Every structure is written in structure tokens, then in C-alpha cells.
Amino acid sequence: MSNLRLLNETTISSSVSSASVTDVFSSDFDIYKISISDSDSSANSNVNLRFINSSGSIVTSSEYDTAGLIALSYASFSENRTTNQTHIDNIGGGGRSTEAENGANVLYIFNPFSSSSYTFLLSQASVQASSGLASTKAIGVLTELSSIAGFTIFLDSGTIDKMKFRTYGLRVDT
Amino acid sequence: MGLLQVATNTVTSAVASVTLTGIDSDDVYMVAINNAFASADDDYEIRITKGGIVQSDANYDRASKDLKTDAVFGNTAGTNLTEIDFSAGIGTSGTNSHNEIIYLFNFANASEYSFITMENVTMRDDANDILFGFQGGAVHTVASASDGIHFFLTGGNNISSGTFTLYKVV
Questions:
Q1: Does B73 touch chain A if contact means CB atoms closer than 8 Å?
Q2: Do B69 and A117 lie within an 8 Å CB cutoff?
Q3: Which fold has domain A4-170?
Q4: Tens of pLDDT along A10-55?
């Protein structure tokens, strides 16, 4: 049996301002892999992430840091550095109003459920922007010692019209 | 994608190094490092093993981009190194843990070099606790079979805690 355990599959099929996956992180796993695919949006926009704590509340405090490298096929690479923001900024991937241009993400989340460590994120994504490919490699952290059980995705502008999330836990057999 | 666990080591008391072996096929392998700390602020290093023996020869090349929130991203690179530096400022406790995903390619193939890709994230343990992570790759330029990966700290400090797990990608 695979040590990569599918825990949740969530599909968004109608227009929403944000898309959430709740109650998916637990004490059963310390590392999670999330794939985001099959996306479409109403506007061309960055894709952002917030965590949802174990009480079900979206964490909106200014305690998110992000560092992202955006590799572009049509221009010089750019860097995204933010600290003390209310979200992980620009994880890449979807956020295109032309369905075919929406790419995909793979995220790894570390230690979300532990209230004694920060919640860390790795993100890799690709999307077809207006002038060509934009590929993102990003890291992020929620510098708050709280127990995190889920996440929510939203755009800088516009709505999410389609999106599929698959969340896996990486099991360690001791 | 599936993952089959090959080896794991959860460090709960200080050790000088962690070695994960058991690579015996041409499959891709993955290492996950979770919540790792050092006995004193230090950097993690990687070497590979062949026949269970840690390789300390000067045949490692590496290149990576370092992502951070306090400055323009840097490039870290080198050739003919004796080890692969893959972190910066691992902390000793609390919130400065090191977390990483590593992929290993061609390790069991005696006709190929052993290739590594790595991505990691930590809060670098300095005065400002900066978000920091490497994104890059490395290679051991010896065409012979490798069977594992070895972790230790640059400054000779101990690995005080953390979970290191080797999976086969199936």
C-alpha cells in the first residue's frame, strides 16, 4: 500500500470567491501533498492561499511570509518577496480567464496540525500568461503557532469557476 | 504517483549524522525531511552512499537558487565539492525547523551519475528569523551504483531531532 494516502478530493464546478478544503490536516500526518488542477477563473489574477485553523476559522492575521521565483518564458525572471501579509502571496498556477491557460500546482505543507511549530509551504506551478509561460517556485510560512486543519484559495480579483484539489498525507511507518 | 517507504529515521536524541539506504532499483526515490533541528545553528550537508559507504570524494557538483524574504535571491553553485550544502541556518528549537523534499535519480544505475533535486524551507535561525529555502539540484559525477543518502552538519554539530524518510516512487 502506498505511503502517499489520498485524504480528500474537492472539485469546484461553479463560480466562487474562494475555494476551501477543511478538516483535512490532522495528527495522523506531518507532511501533506496537494495538487491543484483543472482550473478556470473569471479574470487573470494571482492565486493566493490562507490556512484554516482547527476551529474552522480562516487565518487572516498578518503573519504570512512568501518568497517566490517566477520564471518567465517571455521576459526576465521576477521575484516575489512579502512578509507579514494576510496570505501566502502568489503560489502560481491557475488564475486565468481562458481555461486552457490555467496550469497546475503541487504544494507540500509541513507540520500544519502542530501548534508548536510554524506551518511551512513549498509550491511549484506553471501557468500560461498572456505572453508565454510563467513557472513559479515558492516557499511560504504562517508564523503563528496554531493548529491548522485546512486551506483556502482565492484570487487577487475575479472568481474561481473551476478547480480540483487532491490532498494526500505522507505516511511514515515507524 | 505512489510512495513505498524504504527507510526512516526519527531522531529524538542528538546524532552526528543520519544515513538512509536501501536504493536497489532504477526507480525514482524521494526523501522527505520533517521538523529537523540542529544542536547549534548550522547547515545541513548531503553525501551519497555506495555499498553503504559514505562517499567523501570531490565529485559533487551543485547549483541552486536561494529564496528568501530579506534580499534579492542568490545563486549557490560549485563543482568538484566534497559534499552538497543544502541549507542555511538550521535552528536549534522552536520555530526554526528544516523541511525538505528531495528526489533521487539513477542512483542504482552503475552506468549513470547520481542526480538529486531538492527544495526546502525553513525560518533561518538568525536575528531576524528570515524565511529561506533552496531550490536546485546536485550530482555525484561517478558512474557507479549508489544505494543511499547521508545527512550531516557542516560545523560538526549534531542533528538533534527530525524525521528523515526515504521512499521509492512507484
A1: yes
A2: no
A3: Jelly Rolls (2.60.120)
A4: 999 999 999 999 999 999 999 999 999 999 999 999 999 999 999 9
On chain B, the residues whose CB falls within 8 A of the CB of A104 are: none
Of B4, B35, B120, the CB nearest to A117: B35
DSSP string across chain B: --EEEEEEEEE-S-BSEEEEE---SSS-EEEEEEEEEESSSB-EEEEEEETTEE--SS-EEEEEEEEESSS--EEEEEEEESSEE--S-B-SSTT--EEEEEEEESTT-TTS-EEEEEEEEEEE-STT-EEEEEEEEEEE---S---EEEEEETTSPPEEEEEEEEEEE-
Q: What is the CATH number of the domain that holds B110?
A: 2.60.120
pLDDT band at residue B19 using 50, 70 and 90 as cut-offs: very high
Interface confidence: ipTM more than 0.90 = yes
The pLDDT assigned to A61 comes to: 98
Chain B: give the shortest CA distance to residue A145, in Å.
9
Structural domain including B163 reads: 3-169
Q: Which helix (H) or strand (E) holds A43?
A: none
**DSSP letter assigned to residue A168:** E
**Do residues B123 and A118 lie in contact, with contact meaning Cβ atoms separated by under 8 Å?**
yes
* Counted domains in chain B: 1
Distance from CA of B143 to the nearest CA of A (A): 30
Contact between residue A105 and residue A95 where contact means Cβ atoms under 8 Å apart: no
Domain boundaries, chain A: 4-170
B135 inside 8 A of chain A by CB: yes
User: Using CA atoms, how far apart are residues B122 and B130, in angstroms rounded to an integer?
Assistant: 8
Chain B residues 75-134 with CB within 8 Å of chain A: 94-95, 97, 99, 101, 119-123, 129, 131-133
Q: What is the pLDDT of residues A69-107, one digit of tens each?
A: 999 999 999 999 999 999 999 999 889 999 999 999 999
On chain B, the residues whose CB falls within 8 A of the CB of A30 are 34-35, 163
